[in-house]
Amino acid sequence: MSGFKKFLVIPFILIFLAVYPLTSYVESAETDSAPYSLTEITKLQIIKEVNGVKLAKAIFNNQDIKDIVIFKDGSIEEYSKEKHGKLFEKDKLSKKLKEKIKKSSSDEEIPVAVHINDIDHNEVEKYVKDKLKIKDIKDEKPEKIKEYIKEKRIKSKEEYKKSNSQFVKEYINNEEELFESQYSPLIIIRLTNMDIEKLSKNMQVQEMDLFVDSTKEEDTYNSIPNINSKYVKDNLNLRGDGVPIGILEVGYPNLDNTQLTDSNIIFDVPESTANRRRSTHATIVTSIIVGQTEGIAPGATAYVATASSRLGDYEKIEWLIDQGVYVINYSAGYSDVRGEYTDMAKWIDHISIQHDVIFVKSSGNKRLDNLGISDPGMAYNAFTVGSMNDNDSINEPNWLDDIFSPFSCYTENENSENPYPFKPDLTAPGESVDVAGYLSQAGTSISAPHVTGVLAQMLGAFPNIFPRNSVMKAVTTAATLHKTTDDYGIYSMSPSLSDKEGAGVIDALSIYNCLSGSHFLTENLTESQFPYIHNIGVNADDTQSVRVSLSWLKNNIIPDSSQNVVERELSDLDLEVFDPEGNQVGYSMSANNNLEVVEFTPTMSGEYKIMVEGYALTNDSEQISLAWTESN
Predict the structure, then answer these.
(1) What family does the entry list (predicted)?
(2) Architecture of the CATH domain 217-515
C-alpha cells in the first residue's frame, strides 16, 4: 500500500493501549524483520474473535497494513495462516447452539438451522447461458437480462429441491423438519443433543445454528420531495413502470384506500382473505412505494405477502422470488436478536447474490434503549435503512433543518470491536410522514419503502443494470448529497461513513444523474487483477466535492466442508483515490464491510486515480461495482 499515508492517531487507540500492555509485541512468522511496538498501531479493527483470541486488521506507522493476532494476555503477533490458522477454525456449531445444548436435556428437541453443501452455481450459470445463447450478460438487452434472471432462478430451484430433499431423505426424519428451502442450502429441523452431534460430523453439513421462531415486530415508531423522488417521478417520468416489487408485511394493505385503488397489487392469498387481515402499517408502506399520487413508483407491480414469524418469512420470501420480484421491502424485524449476523441474515445474503434480489430492510427503532439493528438487518448484502426527519420544510428539498432520528438504530464502529458490517447503509425520511390519509407517521418502517420506491424508479429507467444489487448499492451510496449527523470521521478506517446514517440520505435525482451519465462500472476480478485502477476526469473549478463508492457482495458459498480455517467471512477490499500528482486524497479501508466510500474536495483539475486493492480475498474472483458523483 505505497500510497497509504498521513493518518491521525485516534482516541480508540489510547483505549486499546490501556487494555493491552505496552510490553506487547508483533512478531513476524515469516521474516526476521524487527518486531513492531504496539505504540506504532495507528488504526485497528477486530475481524473476528475465537475463544478470547482476536484476529485484527492493523495499520502501523501510518503506512503498513497487516493482520495481527491479539492473545488473551495482550501480546500480539503478525498473523500467519500456517502458525495461527488453527486458532480461528470455524466450528460447525454456533455459539448460541452450544449454549442451548448445555442447558437442554438429552431428549429435548432443539430447532436447528442446518446449512449444507451448496449446489454448483457455476454449472447453473453455464446451463442458463448456453440455453439462452448468452456470452456476457452485461452486453445483453433488458429483455434478455430479465429472461436470464428468470431461468437462473428456475434452474437453481430445481437443483435445490433435488439436493435438499436428497439430504433430508438420507439423514433426517421428515417429522423433524420445519422448513426446507427451495432457493438455498438451508433446512430447519428439530434435533436432540445426540442427533446434533451426529449430524455435525456429516461432511455435507457446513454450519448449524440455533433457530428461534420469534414473533416479528413492525418497525414503526409528505416526504418524497426531500429525496428528489417526486422530481424524477413528475419531471423525468420515472414511475417504476412494470418493475416487480415484493413487500413482506404482517398484514395486508387496504385496497379501498384512494392511494391504492388503481395500483397494481397482487396478494399471496385470495383478496377476500386479505381483506379480513387489513393493516394500517401495510397500507402506509405500500402507499409510499406504489401509491397513485403519493407513491414513489406508482407504475411498479407490488406483490404483497404476509408472515408473523421467522418460519413464515422464509416461506413467503421464497414465494416472492417465485413471482419474479427484483426488490423486496421488509419494514419489520426481530428484537430478540440485535446487531448480530444470524442464520436469517446469512440466508438473506445468499438469496441476494444467487438470485439477484435487492433486500431493503428497516434498521429498527430502539436506539434510545441503546439497542442495535433489528434482525435480519445485519445482512451484508441488504440495503439497511435508517431514519431522518426533514421537519416538513416548505419547498423541499430544503435540507438545512434535516436531522437524524434519535430512535433509528445503528452499529458502533468507532471502538474497533464491531466484527460485523456497518449498518445502516443509508437513511431516508422516517418522521412526520403524512401518507394515505395517515398523519405524522414515524419509524424506520417508513424509511425503508422510500428506498424501495427509488430503486423501483431506477430499475424501470435502467433495466439493463446488472448485477443489480452491487451496482445499485454503489450508486445509491455515491449519490447521497446531504448528511444529517456530525459523526463522519469517527471511524478512522473509513472516515466518509457515519455510524448513524451510513453513507447519508438517499437522493433519487443524484442517483439518476449517476446512472444516466454512466458514472459507474462493474468488473469481475481475479486476484492477479488487483489492484484495479480506474481514472476519472475532475474539473476542480466546477466541483465542490467528489464521492466514490465501492460495493461487492458477500458470497456464503463454501465449496468444501473440509475448509474449516476461515480467517474472514468476507473478502476485504480497500479503496483509495489519488489526485493528478499522485497524492492520496481519500481512503476507505474497513475490515468487515462490503461497502467503502471516499469523499474529497478536489484542489486541482485533471485525471484522478481510483484504486481498489484486494487486501484479503476469500473467493476465486470478486464482482465489484464502482460509482462516482460530483456535487457543485
Answers:
(1) Belongs to the peptidase S8 family.
(2) 3-Layer(aba) Sandwich (3.40)
